[in-house]
From TrEMBL, chain A:
Belongs to the binding-protein-dependent transport system permease family. InterPro entries: BP-dependent_transpt_permease, MetI-like, MetI-like_sf, OppC_N. It is found in: Cell membrane. GO terms for cellular component: plasma membrane. It comes from Lichenicoccus roseus. Its main location: membrane. Keywords: Cell membrane, Membrane, Peptide transport, Protein transport, Transmembrane, Transmembrane helix, Transport. It is a multi-pass membrane protein. Coiled coil: none annotated. GO terms for biological process: peptide transport; protein transport; transmembrane transport. The chain crosses the membrane at residues 76-99, 111-129, 135-154, 193-216, 236-261. This is ABC transporter permease.
Automatic annotation (TrEMBL), chain B:
It comes from Lichenicoccus roseus. The lineage of its organism: Bacteria, Pseudomonadati, Pseudomonadota, Alphaproteobacteria, Acetobacterales. It is found in: Periplasm. This is ABC transporter substrate-binding protein. Its main location: periplasm. One of its GO terms (cellular component) is ATP-binding cassette (ABC) transporter complex.
Length: 280, 534
């Protein structure tokens, strides 16, 4: 990929740059953050942005910049882990229930209907309250919420593909179910799921932050963007804007990053959307 | 063209509305109406319901008691109760037996309830019977504090305006107890209209209605939304200045702050210290401040490790950066709690408070207790209490200096209460006040191992014995000496991490006058008035 490649694709460039920033924050948080993200310093409570604290301090005197940097680890790792788990479970399940149209497939679909009949946020709150307010429980809840999304996408593709002539041809050449599913159908059914992967990470970031915002996510003083926005919201009326604003911007940029990358991935994987010779 | 005009008009309207939000709105309520914003409406209007901050306030206004403390001027022009002076209310006078085993109430003549029914001894007796049979608040006071065992021997109607309460043994609290606002007298004539075979004491009706001889009655009770208090035109001490009190539930304190600032409410209750600090210098707003009877602490489960060891409890007390918390969380409007007894109550002494922010001493204590590297524990606090969350985060950092790793567990209040009453929460925030200004009463509530609310499971035989003696002794000098010793033991034993007395602060528009402080900390609307100008 050349410089001209990125220049021609500003959205992809921005998405990749934002992703790079987040990766740097995750890997080098300890070196980049000027202060501990969890140590209270009450005598420096709610200080506005300054040279000492470029993004100010929160109500406990903790440095907002340091907390935002460390929160990248939690928000992204939770979201990526949850979505990856949902992808790894949802894709094979979607393949199976699309390929085999049995009572079991119907029951699995009804289970997905049941999960998706609830507003995502409400179901997330309920599950976290049952499982407990732990960081990896939040990831588990997100995975549960996203499995039906991937499974449905793949199933829809499989239902269409399994009737195509090239599948009949494969059958005629002696291919069994496993071979048909994994060699002929799955590679052609993956595109929507791959595009959804990036979009889901953005959604997962929003959900993680949203659950923490309403107090159903991680606990204080864990550095997490939604929790930071929530803890600052109460101070907005006092004119203290920095505690909520900066983590809010971090959420926006992280979601934007994955939305842009997802969009580029969709174009990249869709032969009808890309100009010949320009995709790679 | 027409569409453009329409669009322009819409934009102008939106802009106008936006600008209007920024401008302070003047209070729209008339001078005889007070609009109050509070965190929650009362859970029930029945005085037999367990007391909460919201129910205490309702009770002060819709139940009239037999006795009350006289008032005296306090700091900042706020009237406060004079604990040495008991006055008649529904009882015009009372006679205390020389041996403190009975009290005779002489009821006031001509008193009428807000529903127009006259007060007689039958109202008092019916109220006593109801309270005894419901086995809740009244029953607790009678059995646990006054040690009554047989109601037939205890409650007597002498004549239509005289009632006597007799005890099996003397009680130093015999007169003082009847000041409590959860021992109000009901309008029995009205109550009897609402009893049914399956609800013989009218509890269902009284949960959402009022029937007493108080300055106010409730005309609308919409839980979670609004309570409307209407003045009792027959009130025997004179018609209240304010004809109507409109109480609106606003759970978020920043919303209450904004409403007061904009003038859409006259009174904002239970604001955060930070918000009060902001409002303090704001024109048109007044902050009323009293160092009342609250004791905020972190209770430790003394019955479970590592808190079974007194050195661990002492070490945590030595790890609290109290001055920093006072400054950054309370803006120096709170005071350090130096005793388990409220600082304004007779018998209080700060002499035995010996804790400071001393990490070396705390580490030595932990090492001696067998925890040289600290330990891991959990600190619970309720959702919606920003102050406790702020303090919890500071404590987590402070305790970590000695290796004590505290996990903060923010829980719905009901879950937190359930956990600490079952003894499954190692540490938790607890803010409470005792409404009877008596050291033995206070100690009995929280430190007597026989008490149902000794949630920290503190147990010291000498403390139990001293409290029990003081609850039946009428020798005030001896009682004070006993309570001094209790404070000495408790401060050494450190069953709690002693924190602060946050006091009680009320924010009002400066056109609101007459705030007075009483031990339950809720507002007594009868004292309030409103003027057109500050």
């Amino acid at each position: 990929m050349t410089f001209r490649f990125w220049l021609r694709r500003p959205a992809a460039t921005l998405g990749a740059a934002l992703l790079l920033l987040q990766v740097i924050a995750i890997v080098f948080a300890g070196m980049l953050a000027p202060y501990s993200p969890t140590m209270a310093d009450p005598l420096h409570s709610l200080e506005p942005p300054s040279w000492q604290h470029p993004l100010g301090t929160d109500v406990s005197g903790m440095d907002v910049l340091s907390r935002i940097i460390f929160a990248t680890r939690i928000n992204l790792l939770v979201s990526i882990t949850a979505v990856a788990a949902a992808f790894l479970i949802g894709v094979p399940v979607g393949l199976l229930i699309g390929f085999y149209r049995t009572i079991a497939s119907t029951l699995v679909m009804r289970l997905f209907d049941f999960i998706q009949s609830f507003p995502v946020f409400v179901l997330g709150m309920a599950l976290v309250s049952v499982l407990g307010q732990e960081i990896w429980n939040v990831a588990l809840v997100l995975a549960i919420l996203f499995v039906p999304v991937f499974a449905r996408l793949v199933r829809a593709e499989v239902l269409s593909l399994r009737e195509r002539p090239f599948i009949s041809a494969a059958r005629c050449s002696g291919a069994g179910d496993i071979s048909v599913m994994f060699r002929h159908i799955l590679p052609n059914a993956m595109t929507p799921a791959l595009v959804q992967l990036s979009i889901s990470i953005g959604m997962a970031i929003l959900l993680t932050a949203g659950l923490s915002f309403i107090g159903a996510g991680v606990r204080m003083p864990t550095p997490e963007w939604g929790l930071m926005v929530s803890s600052g919201a109460q101070q907005l009326i006092l004119g203290v804007w920095w505690v909520s604003l900066f983590p809010g911007i971090a959420i926006v940029l992280a979601v934007l990053c994955f939305a842009l990358l997802g969009d580029q991935l969709r174009i990249f994987l869709d032969p009808t959307k890309r100009a010949p010779g320009k995709a790679r | 063209m027409r569409d453009r005009l329409l669009a322009a008009a819409t934009v102008s309207l939106c802009l106008g509305a936006t600008l209007r939000v920024g401008a302070p709105a003047l209070a729209q309520s008339p001078l005889n109406t007070l609009v109050v914003a509070g965190p929650r409406t009362p859970e029930s209007l029945d005085q037999e319901y367990p007391p909460t901050e919201a129910t205490h306030e309702a009770r002060r206004n819709i139940y009239e008691r037999l006795l009350a403390y006289g008032m005296k001027p306090g700091p900042g022009g706020i009237s406060v109760e004079d604990f040495g002076k008991i006055e008649g209310r529904l009882a015009e006078s009372y006679d205390l037996a020389p041996d403190d085993t009975s009290i005779t109430f002489h009821l006031r003549h001509g008193v009428k309830s807000s529903l127009g029914n006259p007060l007689t001894a039958d109202d008092v007796m019916w109220t006593f019977q109801r309270g005894w049979n419901l086995k809740a608040t009244f029953h607790w006071y009678m059995t646990q504090v006054l040690k009554i065992t047989d109601p037939d021997q205890a409650f007597h109607k002498i004549d239509d305006y005289t009632v006597r309460v007799s005890l099996p043994q003397p009680s130093p609290l015999l007169a003082r107890l009847w000041v409590n606002n959860d021992l109000g007298i009901l309008d029995a004539t009205e109550m009897k209209k609402h009893v049914t075979s399956d609800d013989p004491w009218g509890s269902r009706w009284l949960a959402t209605h009022s029937a007493s001889f108080a300055p106010y009655g409730i005309t609308q009770f919409s839980p979670g939304q609004t309570v409307i208090y209407q003045a009792n035109p027959n009130y025997y001490r004179g018609t209240p200045h304010l004809a109507r009190i409109v109480f609106r539930e606003m759970p978020n304190s920043s919303n209450r702050t904004a409403a007061l600032e904009a003038g859409s409410v006259d009174v904002a209750e239970w604001l955060q210290p930070r918000e009060l600090n902001l409002l303090r210098n704001m024109p048109g707003v007044r902050i009323w401040k009293v160092f009342g009877n609250y004791i905020a602490r972190v209770e430790m489960n003394n019955a479970s490790k590592p808190f079974t060891d007194v050195r661990v409890r002492q070490a945590l007390n030595d790890l609290v950066p109290r001055d920093e918390i006072l400054k950054s969380v309370f803006f120096n409007t709170a005071r350090i709690t130096k005793s388990p007894i409220s600082e304004i109550y007779p018998g209080y002494t700060p002499a035995y408070f010996n804790y400071s922010d001393d990490v070396a001493k705390a580490k030595a204590l932990l090492a001696a207790a067998g925890y040289p590297n600290g330990f891991k524990t959990t600190l619970g606090y309720p959702t919606g209490d920003e102050v406790e969350e702020e303090v919890a985060v500071i404590l987590k950092t402070a305790f970590a200096r000695a290796g004590v790793d505290v996990e903060l567990d923010k829980l719905p209040a009901s879950t937190l209460v359930e956990r600490y009453t079952k003894g499954t929460m190692p540490m938790y925030f607890f803010r409470d006040m005792a409404i009877v200004p008596d050291a033995a009463y206070v100690a009995n509530l929280w430190l007597n191992s026989a008490s149902l609310i000794d949630y920290s499971h503190f147990h010291d035989p000498e403390v139990d014995s001293l409290i029990n003696q003081a609850l039946t002794s009428t020798d005030e000098t001896k009682r004070i000496a006993e309570m001094t010793r209790v404070q000495q033991i408790v401060m050494q034993q450190a069953p709690w991490v002693f924190l602060f007395n946050p006091g009680y602060q009320l924010a009002t528009r400066s056109t609101v006058h007459g705030y007075s402080w009483y031990t339950p900390n809720g507002n007594t609307w009868y004292d309030f008035s409103k003027s057109a100008t500050p």
